[in-house]
Specification:
The complex is a heterotrimer. Chain B is of the alpha/beta class. Chain B is 29% helix and 24% strand. Chain B has an eight-stranded mixed β-sheet, with helices on both faces. Classes of the chains: A alpha/beta, B alpha/beta, C mainly alpha.
Chain lengths: 331, 320, 286
């Protein structure tokens, strides 16, 4: 349904715009209808940039994004509203998403005025009440209030309700629960899963948290500094991580059921190198060798599991998975 | 030895009245123990951490005693606490790594810091270099500006600085939250390493991320809305918690491997009470599934098993 | 409701801020004087009413008379009117242009911002006096309105820059992105989402422009480039110096207008600082 083909985003930085910052570099993936795909990456990986490009908030430097086969960069000024009827987004900071001087439900009024001006107030209020209940909010408790009178969880639900008013097909959820308390996180996450089931909503779940990604999605993509490291079914990525970065993530993320692997070592003092034509993970990778000066392509090593790493391809890790424990020492 | 906190009560003064941020908290930390302090926003963990070392307005000391190594800390007197700060009790505040003076080289900054505490920089330099080796920082960082270091490196530097005088107690406030995964692991493990080497005797690790505590803390203290809920060994809190809040909190955290389709996790409905006019008795009362009428009275923080404290009438009943 | 309390909070601090109150009182005092003053005296400002020429203040002539026997008080109160007019219209025009350009540059960014920046910088460095001299040579008769236009068209760059900077910072907030995703047009977003958030900033910009316009007008009048058909405070000062008030000790001729200008502009700036404290909680002395 949504397809990204060789998407790149380059910024001009430095004095007189001499240098280039490659926030996103040649990323391709596809999301089908009714699918939840997680975009996993740390800060600086380019995940939010991809989300904003899909939402047409940032321009694309090269490559194409197509929704149901239509290239979104060809959408003219007048047709952008049609696009936003199908694609919407919710962002990380619930309090920043609201204009602090207006009431929270002004958002709904804006949707009415922009998209459904012909709907009468009576019918509209009924519609609003329905979506509020769909996201688990009691209309009496939350309507007519200012953003600072509501909690983070309620504000995020409000934003999800807003997207439901438009009956969207695709939602970009950019770290929507990372600023919420632990006890409310899971409820908002469950809500997303329910919406996927009940409405066939496709969701791009952008996060840095592996366990949340695993909880809610079937497929995932691991992003490192703007490049795709590994992509495919989340079970396969988690059980047999092939890219050294994914392996490092799986070993270093603090978990509640397993103590840290003491053996994994990563080059800690590496300062981010200038953009090289080779693999982005080169300066921190314990397995790097000469071929890594060339950017590795993303190759499918098994059904629904692709990796962009020369070493992984070379050793054909699929058949002989070397235990993570044996990877020692820096380079 | 170690830390003993008795009845510590701290309020925040605001235009609209006092916010009851910390109410009658009593607990202790043994020598050599790394205690995690966890809870959600507004639970009072930052107030507790900062109240122990620096009670600046609008924080208001109301009641309580704090004993460190059997010596009373004059926490109500900011000036007198100066003698203890950095030497006996030290803190790594949240965002410390971003607070380094950007136009001072790290070595110069350290020198000025030590001079203000009447310590000779040259005398302590060999020890400083030894500590830098421990955290895998090259000695050249002393000649660099903060902007030349990555987040992880800055945080490790701050760690070295805060423990330079071998404090008895180190308070670490969210030291891993803004770091990437690899640096997080390194910083957390180095904290344990420092404790093992005696660079600090005990530590309080304040965080909202319980999985980090599972990795490095010996015990965990769970707080809710300014009151203590439960304190026990890490394993116990994660595997066999007894306070209703702890139980619900732990069960709402997805472990790697949990899937929505297999088992749906549940959160805690409702939200924490406002502390301007806090509810009477146990503050978790409104959201608690097993609350009953006795909960209108504040439950005491009782030791239900060796080194396992719970503040809950229901759980206390089981032992009575 | 919280909003009610918030409004009250602003009011609370407004009424307690000495700088704001003192400044406001001074302005209102002069405004009142300018409005009802001309009705208190029946002397025309340029009429030669005193056959004795220059005389210090007396019961008949409140502020005394000029070298030519003109009633200074009459000139003064009418001059006040001109001053406030210039401040309001000239300052208002400058603020308006600054708003239009500042918002557009700040919101659009990119090439539009670059072009507007160049334009702003050019207007900033134009030698205004030189241009005015040329204009003065062509327009034999200049009204207060012309002066307002001139000031408005040359003083806006400061406002534009400030507004552009604020708009830049507000534009990156998520609620602006949300408005874009709701299909709102850029102009609508600027005026319904961004501008209301900057109200305090816009008010303060206007006050600064107001004061600045008065000062510029006074300077222009003093060197003789001001309006030719009305009296203004700056004009009074020009005449007083021209006709030797300083050497002859006719203090009542130049002190009232000079003091008035200083007091008004000073009061405006004081109001501005006070407003800044009201709107920005961090600056309040608590």
């Amino acid at each position: 349904m949504l397809k990204l083909d060789k998407i790149s985003k380059t910024y001009r930085v430095g004095t007189f715009g001499g240098k280039e910052l490659h926030a996103v570099n040649d990323v391709s993936f596809e999301i089908k209808a009714g699918e939840v795909v997680s975009l996993i990456g740390e800060s600086g990986s380019g995940k939010s940039t991809i989300g904003k490009m899909i939402l047409r908030l940032i321009s694309i430097t090269s490559g194409t994004i197509s929704l149901n086969g239509v290239d979104i960069s060809t959408i003219k000024e007048g047709a952008t509203k049609e696009y936003y009827r199908k694609v919407q987004g919710v962002f990380q900071d619930p309090f920043s998403s609201y204009n602090p001087i207006f009431k929270a439900d002004r958002l709904f009024r804006i949707i009415h005025d922009e998209f459904y001006p012909e709907v009468k107030d009576q019918d509209w209020n009924e519609k609003v009440e329905n979506v509020m209940k769909a996201v688990g909010l009691n209309p009496e408790h939350v309507l007519n209030k200012y953003p600072h009178q509501l909690s983070g969880g309620q504000l995020q639900r409000f934003l999800i309700a807003r997207t439901l008013l438009l009956d969207i097909q695709f939602l970009v959820a950019d770290e929507i629960i990372s600023m919420l308390d632990a006890s409310t996180r899971i409820d908002v996450l469950n809500l997303l899963a329910d919406l996927k089931k009940s409405r066939g909503l496709s969701i791009l779940f952008i996060t840095h948290d592996l366990s949340l990604a695993h909880y809610i999605s079937e497929r995932a993509m691991i992003l490192y500094r703007g490049n795709v490291a590994e992509i495919g079914s989340i079970e396969k990525i988690f059980n047999t991580p092939l890219h050294p970065y994914t392996q490092m993530l799986m070993a270093s993320v603090p978990r509640l059921d397993k103590k840290w692997d003491q053996e994994i070592s990563v080059e800690l003092n590496a300062t981010p190198s200038e953009f090289s034509k080779g693999c982005a993970y080169f300066d921190r990778c314990p397995l790097a060798f000469e071929k890594c000066h060339e950017k590795p392509p993303s190759i499918e090593v098994e059904i629904d599991h692709s990796v962009a790493c020369w070493k992984a391809l070379e050793n054909n890790y699929v058949r002989q998975i070397k235990p993570v424990l044996e990877i020692k020492g820096g380079h | 030895m170690g830390l003993q906190v008795e009845n510590l009560t701290v309020y925040y003064q605001t235009l609209r009245g006092d916010v009851h941020a910390l109410e009658s908290t009593t607990f202790s930390i043994a020598n050599g123990e790394i205690m995690g302090l966890a809870g959600e926003s507004g639970c009072g963990k930052t107030t507790l951490g900062h109240g122990l070392i620096s009670m600046t307005p609008p924080m208001k000391y109301v009641a309580g005693r704090v004993l460190l190594d059997n010596e009373e800390l004059p926490i109500w007197d900011n000036a007198r606490m100066n003698d203890f700060r950095f030497k006996k009790i030290s803190i790594i505040p949240q965002y410390a790594m971003n607070a380094m003076n950007p136009i001072r080289k790290i070595g110069r900054m350290t020198e000025e810091l030590l001079r203000s505490k009447k310590v000779d920089y040259q005398a302590i330099l060999p020890e400083l270099k030894r500590r830098l080796d421990l955290v895998k920082l090259p000695h050249e960082v002393l000649k660099m500006y903060p902007i030349e270091l990555s987040g992880g490196m800055k945080q490790r530097m701050v760690m070295v600085l805060s423990m330079l005088m071998d404090p008895s107690l180190l308070i670490a406030d969210e030291i891993t939250s803004a770091l990437d995964v690899a640096s997080q692991k390194a910083v957390a493990e180095m904290l344990v390493e420092f404790r093992n080497l005696g660079c600090c005797k005990s530590a309080i690790v304040i965080t909202h991320d319980i999985s980090i505590l599972y990795q490095i803390a010996d015990s965990i203290l769970i707080m809710y809305a300014g009151q203590l809920a439960e304190k026990a060994a890490t394993r116990t809190i994660i595997d066999a918690p007894r306070h209703p809040y702890t139980k619900m909190l732990i069960s709402s955290l997805p472990k790697v491997g949990a899937k929505h389709v297999d088992k749906r996790l549940a959160g805690i409905p409702g939200k924490p009470p406002l502390l301007l006019n806090p509810p009477v008795g146990c503050r978790f009362r409104d959201r608690c599934p097993v609350a009953f009428d006795k909960c209108l009275e504040v439950p005491p923080f009782l030791e239900v098993k060796k080194d396992h404290y719970v503040a809950c009438w229901k759980e206390g009943e089981k032992n009575a | 409701m919280k909003k009610h309390k918030k409004k009250n909070e602003f009011l609370y601090f407004t009424l307690r801020n000495k700088k704001l109150l003192v400044g406001l009182s001074i302005i209102l005092l002069f405004l009142l004087l300018g409005l009802i003053g001309p009705m208190l005296t029946h002397n025309e400002p340029f009429a030669y009413v005193n056959p004795y020429g220059a005389q210090p203040p007396s019961s008949e002539y409140l502020f005394g008379t000029t070298f030519f026997g003109q009633d200074i008080f009459s000139q003064f109160v009418r001059g006040l009117r001109a001053t406030f007019l210039v401040g309001a219209i000239g300052g208002g025009l400058g603020t308006l242009i600054g708003i239009l350009i500042g918002f557009t540059a700040g919101y659009r960014g990119g090439i539009v911002d670059e072009i507007l920046n160049v334009f702003t910088n050019i207007v900033l460095v134009i030698p205004t006096f030189a241009v005015l001299l040329i204009i003065a040579a062509y327009l034999q008769v200049r009204s207060v309105f012309t002066e307002c236009l001139f000031i408005g068209f040359t003083a806006w760059p400061w406002a534009a820059r400030a507004i552009r900077a604020q708009t830049f910072s507000l534009r990156t907030r998520d609620f602006v992105d949300l408005a874009r995703m709701s299909g709102m047009k850029s102009a609508k977003i600027i005026f319904t989402e961004i501008a209301p958030n900057m109200m305090s900033y816009l008010v303060m910009t206007f006050i600064l422009q107001f004061g600045g316009a008065i000062l510029i007008a006074a300077t222009l009048d003093f060197i003789g480039l001001g309006p030719t058909n009305t009296v203004s405070l700056g004009l009074m000062m020009q005449y007083s110096v021209l006709w030797g008030a300083l050497q002859l000790g006719m203090w009542w001729w130049f002190i009232p207008p000079g003091l008035a200008i200083t007091a008004i502009v000073g009061a405006l700036y004081s109001m501005n600082v006070g407003l800044d404290e009201v709107f920005n909680p961090k600056l309040r002395e608590m």
